[in-house]
Here is the input.
Amino acid sequence: MIIDLEHHLSGAEQIIKGSSKSGRIVERYRDADGYIGLRIYEAAASVEKHLQFMDEAGIDVAVLSRSPEMSVERSRQWNDLCARIVKEHPKRFAGFASVPPLGGKPAFEELERAVKELGLKGVHIFSRSGNHTLDNKEYWPFYEKVSELKTPIDVHIINRPQGFDALHAPYPFYYIMAREFDVCATTLRICLGGVLEDFPDLIFIINHFGGGVSAVLERVDAYMGYVDPG
Here is the structure.
């Protein structure tokens, strides 16, 4: 069985009605500040189009997710939509909930509803919220709730991570590299920043293969071997 674990379904508020001149469902463009953005067209919200793509690519099951940094109300709308699609196509789709991880009690209540009542299988978040990285103590209440629910955390890249100014160039170097550096750093922050010590039962799914973290694991092992933890 082939499972697509990063399969984004666009919501109505994200899409541009009609189709692109190029025929593509999603187009990349450079904005006035030189950043790469996305134009998402109507077909990206079509379940039938997604099923067609899956059949053509040989994908048996897709786990649906969408941009996670939303209000609790928007999250609720997505969670309801996702659950409905999964119910209509139970053999082809599963779903990840979306809630703002730093949204406090309302977000945690919505996450519990999404998992326990709607049957969604995990929670989809960005590699940071604002500029708060995932080893920031502000995430601890969120981790406590996720641990209670025994559900995995799916970590997605953010489009414009801060702190990578040296990667700006007149070609899409920032778009290619900054997001991967950020999610690589996120992976190591989870491993080294006390998250797993305090929440050893958490399960993280890191998108984009952890941003190439495998390339530096030997250096991490070497560092941990000769640096005095005190």
